[in-house]
Amino acid sequence: MHFDTSEGTFVVELYPERAPSHVENFQQLVHDGFYDGLTFHRVVPGFLVQAGCPHGDGTGGPGYTIDAEFNDMPHEPGTVSMCRTNNPDSAGSQFFVCLDRDNCKHLDGQYTAFGKIVEGYDTIERIAELPLSHPELGVPENAAMILHAMEVYTDEPN
Q1: Model-level pTM greater than 0.90?
Q2: Degrees to nearest 5, angle at CA 46 with 44 and 49
Q3: Burial 23-61 (b: 16+ CB within 10 A, else e)
Q4: What is the largest CA-CA distance in the chain?
Q5: CA nearest 12: which of 120, 117, 125?
Q6: Do 94 and 51 meet the contact criterion of CB atoms below 8 Å apart?
Q7: What is d(CA 3, CA 35) in angstroms, rounded to the nearest whole number?
Q8: With 60 labelled, which of 11, 25, 82, 87 sits at a CA distance of 20 to 30 A?
Q9: What is the pLDDT along the chain (158 residues), one digit of tens a residue?
Q10: How many CB atoms neighbour CB 131 within 10 A?
Q11: Do the beta carbons of residue 10 and residue 131 sit within 8 Å?
């Protein structure tokens, strides 16, 4: 998946063998243009950056949820994982990218990791360095925007 943002581009490699429903959901949301125009509404330096809320405040989703697919993929810098509420089976469209292994390792087995940033991690770092209007909540002054997301193929599509 290729993401063009106001801070640059990044590419997410997906791992359907680890989280098939999450990968299928993410691909469909990208295909439908769901993420286009949404922001990285939450930035916690040294921890994560979060996007995928249609309301821009962490309260929205696609109108449905998918069941957890916890796996053994570690939450380390560049890991892409789905957000959820206290209910493990509440993932929808919001996702986060980990910034630091020590600060994210407690997420292992608690959140569904389904991808990895394989190009453009410097873009994620720029997003993580944006000034915050409410640091305690991780609210950026001027949130980075996803301009366009699209599927790219490195091998033949299935």
Answers
A1: yes
A2: 40
A3: bebbeebbeeebbeebbbbbbbeebbbbbbbbebebebb
A4: 45
A5: 117
A6: yes
A7: 9
A8: 11
A9: 999 999 999 999 999 999 999 999 999 999 999 999 999 999 999 999 999 999 999 999 999 999 999 999 999 999 999 999 999 999 999 999 999 999 999 999 999 999 999 999 999 999 999 999 999 999 999 999 999 999 987 665 54
A10: 9
A11: no
Give every CB contact of residue 47 below 8 A, 6+ residues apart in sequence: 98, 99, 100, 103, 104
Give the distance, in angstroms, between the CA of residue 152 and the centroid of all CA atoms in the same chain: 17
For residue 129, what are its two tokens? 């360095």
* CA distances, 30 to each of 83, 100, 130, 131 (Å): 16, 26, 24, 27
